[in-house]
Amino acid sequence: MRRTFIGIAACAVALCSPLLPTATAAPTGEAGVFASAEPLAPVATPPSAVDSERFFYSTTTVGDAPTQASAAVYFPPGQPPAGGWPVLAWAHGTIGLGDQCAYSVAGPAEVGRDWAYLDSWLGQGYAIVAADYAGLGTDGEHPYLNGMVEAHNVVDAVRAATSHYDTLSRRWAVVGQSQGGGAAVFTARYATELGGPGLDYRGAVATGTPAYIEDALQLGGPGMPPIALGGDTTAYVLYILAGLRTSYPDLDIDSYLTDAGRAWVDRAESSCIGPFAEQLVAEHVVLGDVLARPISSLPDSHALLHNYLGLPESGYDRPLFLGQGLFDIDVVTPETLRFAATLTAAREPVTVRTYPTDHSGTVNMSLRDSIPFMQGLFA
């Protein structure tokens, strides 16, 4: 079973004060502009979708720098309702960092799971806009798990699609899994602000959401015991290091890596998750051999990592659904539940459901609750 995120620790850690990133919209006229479209490959098309396309649009990446990204749009069968199809933005899980891995190029890493999930939403009468995230399938590096970049990419893809396809409504919500669960949560926090008056944002569904990864990463350093981690888990850490290198060039992340570590992070930037994880297992790569200095020795390391990938703990203006598998070891389940409890205690508009299954199993098992939740958002 292909995993889609990281579970590098199972211990609880102390809650640190949140430092929320600031949402900054791109200058008017630059972001969310539709550029062009091309046919979508069959491998990247859900079975029940019709008239689907791959399209390119303007968005932003690290430092609010302008860039072009790609996305897919999937239309449901039948005639659109008055006002157009309501839109779900699909925030996908980890597929890798190479351009050839992009969701609109190669399709999902978990084909059966994702197509069953997206077909369920298409069958409910939603059109789907699936952003690739900046640097996947287009120029530049993908800043893996950079939450604000992902939020911009998701919102701008919806803006571009709804402005170009006249059968799409401006009413929209976001759904995401694993890496995409984190992206969906970031999008939920900033969607109204980033989307502006031209879009009608309704809410979010996130499953298998990684939380407080900034805490777990503090454990990384040279000489770590060679704990038997899955190849996927090791790959996720290398992807995070690559993302930090892209997002913070002044930090000189390479100086925190051994020679072997630099070589593996370089490979990570052009790899897809499946073959990369297999290669890491075959070559017995362990994280203690990758890191030359502790991650905790980064300048103000916890605050830096929190601002990079830490989930916002307040400020949600629309309903948010969190679904979590109790046997999920791809994320640190106690930490995801701590995040849910934190939102609940703060009286944020969150609905939390747990399921007796693992990371991937939660995706489709959660539909029994997330479909009626979504219907309520669009009622």
TrEMBL record:
GO terms for biological process: lipid catabolic process. It holds the Pfam family LIP. GO terms for molecular function: triacylglycerol lipase activity. Residues 1-25 form the signal peptide. It comes from the Bacteria. Keywords: Hydrolase, Signal. InterPro entries: AB_hydrolase_fold (IPR029058), Lipase_secreted (IPR005152). Coiled coil: none annotated. This is Alpha/beta hydrolase. It comes from Nocardia stercoris.
